[in-house]
Amino acid sequence: MMKPSSRRSFLKSAGAAAAAASLGVPKLHAAALSMPLGVQLYSVRDLLPKDFDGTLHKLSSVGYKVVEAAGYFNKTAAQWKQSMDAAGLRCISTHHSLADLNAKFDELIDYAHSIGLEYIICSWAGIHRDPKKKGELDLDDWRWTADQFNEMGRKIKAAGLTFGYHNHTVEFGTEKGTIFFDELLKRTDPNYVVFEMDCGWVVAGGHNPVEYLSRSPERFPLAHVKDLVKQPDGKFKNVIMGKGTIDYKPIFNAATALKQYFIEQEEYTYNPIEDLKQDAEFMRKLQV
Question: Is this model's pTM higher than 0.85 or not?
Answer without folding.
Answer: yes
